[in-house]
Automatic annotation (TrEMBL):
Positions of the Mur ligase C-terminal domain: 219-341
Protein name, as recorded: Uncharacterized protein
Keyword Protease: no
Gene3D superfamilies registered for this protein in UniProt: Mur ligase, C-terminal domain (3.90.190.20), Mur-like, catalytic domain (3.40.1190.10), Peptidyl-tRNA hydrolase (3.40.50.1470)
An example molecular function term from Gene Ontology annotations: ATP binding
CDD domains xrefs: PTH
Keywords: ATP-binding, Ligase, Nucleotide-binding
Length: 589
């Protein structure tokens, strides 16, 4: 027999926190409970929870994180659980493990640690989890939709605005279960929690009653309706790529006046990240009336834009700009899914901005907590709002249009990227400037000053060219270039972007006809401003031969003598590639 307090461990690739909160809610009707705080499931947090257990506690429920091999060892030694629950195995932390099998082996340690008097609660719908029963000395209870599961769900329904409900089957018992959760995919967590409740001595009816009172946990498909009638579904705690399917299924089935999907930074994406973003954008557009991406890889979604779909798909480098746009277009009756990685993008700020409750717009905050818990949320910080393409005004550029010539339809515009100011001369980040300087010198052109830009106009091999250096900080290049294009009447199809690339060896030069920003903030700002990735490019490699400096420090530090020689050769090579591109890849209409 299990003795008080009953220690229960929960692990798996997803659903741990919701399963824990559901189980705590159920067990609280039977006695005094304690569990680890929110999703803090590393060994230190498990230790804090166990140290907080008192003789008066009846149940201690701990979710156990496993982000690398052997990360469960110490937690299990401390917890010594009598009940172990494994939700599912997926690709979270796949980079730290060799395979999904290796992930399963780590999670299986919870099952192996159980005493013969204990109970393992295993997902019958997941082969890797079900296989753990072979090495289990404890009693095994399975859950799922499989007909062989001990605890089974039938007739699952969860079409928004309805919440998840189903017929619960256990042996000869059947009963209707109604939850407050959003989405049919939560059936796994509900069944896992019920299995845990049964293992801890609850009846099926007691489990069903307890489940009905538990609200969605923060940031896990949590509905938030604003005063003006817009409903946000917050799934903004984490966003592994493999979880997008369940979110899309929820939105596709939902009943709403208009559906909007907002996607921040995805995790567990693997190689060829920009293609994964494009595929995700394609799927989202099949469901949503409006799809919005925010973050450093958002531009990868532009490849999926459909002809004439400018308003159906938008991308933003910064969450602040995304928030301004989203809150300008949403209306009563809209259903908005927020899917992001809280530690990376803090998408909750989109909702908080609607009520004027946020002033912090940092893009580099790595705090685990949600912004509504942060004491710094009302302190102004982060970059100022950009001037996105959709709100550029005719007065943004303080110069009469007549003072800037109009670019002819056949003229090609070559933009070198860099940062203005003497302190940036000779740095890797300014090699784009140097390439167009080299072009201007070889063509005998002189630079003229224009607001926010320097311009040189001439011809190369009989082709009219306009050389441009935007005189704004690199990450604001898009704002300046968009303004200039409005006045000089040129479009993306006429442009060639020349810039540095840290992922290409120093001295190498590569070309590209379109694509995402690849993490380059200057390029990302351009793609955001124009809302297209259809820019030809010449990328100049500036990668470090030895990693002596961090990436940011390196690109803003002048080349040393040896690197300078290689950079000079690269500038000449890039010059040649630009000339080739003018001839071989003319204006794309």
């Amino acid at each position: 027999m299990l003795q008080n307090p009953v220690f229960i461990g929960i692990t798996g690739s997803a659903g741990k926190t919701t399963t824990k909160e559901l189980l705590l809610g159920m067990l609280s009707r039977q006695g005094r409970v304690i569990g680890n705080y929110e999703s803090f499931n590393k060994v230190e947090e498990v230790a804090k929870t166990i140290l907080s257990v008192r003789p008066t506690h009846d149940f201690c429920v701990c979710e156990l994180g496993a982000d690398k091999p052997d990360s469960l060892n110490e937690s299990l030694i401390m917890l010594q659980p009598g009940v172990g629950i494994v939700t599912l195995i997926a690709n979270d932390h796949l980079g730290a493990f060799s395979s999904r099998d290796a992930i399963a082996q780590e999670k299986e340690k919870l099952v192996v640690s159980l005493p013969s008097t204990g109970t393992a609660v295993l997902n019958a719908d997941d082969e890797l989890v079900l296989a753990m029963a072979k090495n289990c000395a404890a009693r095994v209870m399975t859950f799922g939709i499989s007909e062989h599961a001990d605890v089974r769900a039938e007739n699952i329904g969860a079409v928004w605005p309805d919440r998840l409900g189903f017929t619960l089957v256990h042996g000869a018992e059947r009963m209707e279960v109604q939850t407050r959760l959003c989405g049919s995919h939560w059936a796994t967590s509900v069944l896992a929690a019920i299995g845990g409740g049964l293992a801890a001595g609850m009846t099926l009816d007691e489990c069903a009653v307890g489940i009905a009172s538990v609200a969605p946990f923060e940031g896990r498909m949590q509905p938030v309706t604003t005063r003006d009638g817009v409903t946000f579904i917050r799934d903004d705690f984490k966003a592994p790529l493999w979880t997008m399917d369940s979110c899309f299924e929820f939105m596709k089935a939902a009943r709403a006046r208009r559906k909007i999907i907002v996607i921040g930074e995805l995790s567990s994406v693997g190689p060829r990240k920009e293609l994964k973003y494009a595929k995700t954008a394609k799927l989202a557009q099949e469901i949503a009336d409006v799809t919005i991406f925010a973050g450093p890889w958002a531009s990868g979604a532009l490849k999926a834009r459909k002809p004439g779909g400018e308003d159906a798909l938008r991308v933003f480098c910064h969450v602040r700009d995304a928030a301004e746009y989203i809150n300008s277009i949403t209306r009563e009756g809209d259903l908005v899914l927020l899917k992001g990685t809280n530690k990376q993008d803090h998408l909750l700020r989109i909702i908080m901005a609607r009520a004027g409750e946020i002033a912090c717009w940092r893009d580099d905050c790595k705090r685990d907590s949600f912004c509504n818990q942060c004491l710094d949320r009302t302190k102004p910080s982060g970059a100022p709002a950009s001037a996105p393409a959709m709100i550029v005004s005719d007065t943004a550029l303080q110069v009469p249009q007549s003072d800037l010539y109009t670019v002819a339809p056949s003229e090609q515009v070559i933009i070198g990227l860099g940062n203005p100011g003497a302190e940036h001369i000779g740095t890797p980040h300014n090699i784009g400037y140097e390439v167009v300087d080299h072009l201007a010198s070889s063509l005998g052109l002189s630079w003229d000053d224009a607001p926010e830009a320097r311009i040189a106009r001439g011809s190369s091999q009989g082709r009219s060219v306009c050389l441009v250096k935007i005189q704004m900080a690199m990450n604001l290049t898009g704002t300046g270039l968009k303004r200039l294009s409005e006045y000089m009447a040129f479009g993306p199809e006429q442009c060639i972007l020349v810039y540095d690339d840290l992922d290409i060896p120093l001295g190498s030069v590569r070309t590209r006809l379109s694509g995402s920003a690849g993490g380059h903030r200057g390029i990302a700002s351009i793609l955001e401003a124009f809302q297209t990735d259809a820019f030809r490019r010449v990328k100049v490699g500036v990668g470090q031969t030895e990693a002596k400096l961090n990436r940011v420090e390196y690109v803003l530090t002048a080349f040393d003598a040896a690197s300078r020689a290689a950079a000079d050769l690269a500038i000449k090579a890039a010059h040649a590639r630009v000339i080739e591109m003018l001839a071989d890849h003319p204006i794309m209409r």
